[in-house]
Amino acid sequence: MKSCFANCTKKALLFIFTLLLLAPALQAEDQGKWIQLFNGKNMEGWTPKIRGYKLGENHGNTFRVEDGLLKVRYDQYDEFNDTFGHLFYKDRFSHYRLRLEYRFVGEQSKGGPGWAFRNSGAMLHGEDPETMALDQKFPVSIEAQLLGGNGKDKRTTSNLCTPGTNVVMKGKLFTPHCTTSSSDTFHGDQWVTVEMEVHGNGVIKHIIDGEVILEYTKSQLDDREEHSRELIKLNGGKMLTEGTISLQSESHAIDFRKVELMVLEK
């Protein structure tokens, strides 16, 4: 009996030791893989928050999945009337690469603001939607702004906007609300692929075709704004190291063909 117990114990310890040796290799093998946040079938894992409506209420069927695409539409709106919306993914992220394939289509919704023509965005390091007020237009976040051209004028995409936040750029605190990238202009309904590489409170890069078109660091809450001050208390400080990811509805129809994420090592 003792011999059997000893042998079984040795085998169990050997098995555990082998697993411990293999664990780093298994983790390394998992790194660098793209996770599909949008499954191409439905909005599983995503929750809408539209201005003036409760979290989870998809007013006007704004966000929908058709033909394998995640679509933002306004055909059930009488008028846009500042009904800005965001579709939140269920998890928070800190160090990652986010890659989107998008295209603008059709006409802008009636009543949409002029600046929102072919305008959408991906919100990074965002607040939880539960902390947003019912009539809040945008989540406090770092926005990778997506823009389409008007057919003639230069209009860059993957710009930076900072609702309730600031960043550091070229060694200085950068407080303007938006700044343009160095990207080309993408006119018409063509598909565009953009990527954002996020390293916690460190550097964030906006990338197109392997080229860095915008770079900044030290994302932080803006203590000049009341709601941001509330979030600073919840966050335990101004600096943003992680947050939600959400996609915008800003009055112009847009399709997302792919929304994928790669978790990076901290």
Question: How do you describe this structure in short?
Answer:
The chain is mainly beta and about 270 residues long.
Please, what is the oligomeric state? single chain
> Can you tell me the residue ranges where pLDDT is under 50 for at least 5 consecutive residues?
1-30
**The top level CATH class name of the largest domain:** Mainly Beta
Q: Structural class, from helix and strand content? A: mainly beta
Query: What's the helix-strand series?
Result: HEEEEEEEEEEEEEEEHEE
Count the beta strands. 17
Compute the number of structural domains. Answer: 2
Strand fraction:
35-45%
| Helical fraction | 10-25%
Distance between the first and last residues' Cα: 49 Å
Q: What is the name of the CATH superfamily of the largest domain?
A: Exo-inulinase, domain 1
Give the biggest sheet: 10 strands, antiparallel
Radius of gyration: 22 Å
The second-level CATH architecture of the largest domain is: Sandwich
Helix count equals: 2
Shape estimate: globular
Say what the CATH topology of the largest domain is. Answer: Jelly Rolls
If you average the pLDDT, what whole number results?
Answer: 91
Structure write-up:
Residues 1-30 have low confidence and may be disordered. With 266 residues, the chain is mainly β. The chain is globular. The strands form two sheets. Strands 1, 3, 4, 6, 10, 11, 13, 14, 15 and 17 form a ten-stranded antiparallel sheet that branches. It folds into two domains: 1-30; 33-263, Exo-inulinase, domain 1 (Jelly Rolls, Sandwich), CATH 2.60.120.560. It contains two helices and 17 strands. The termini are far apart. The longest helix is centred in the N-terminal third of the chain and has 29 residues, at 2-30.
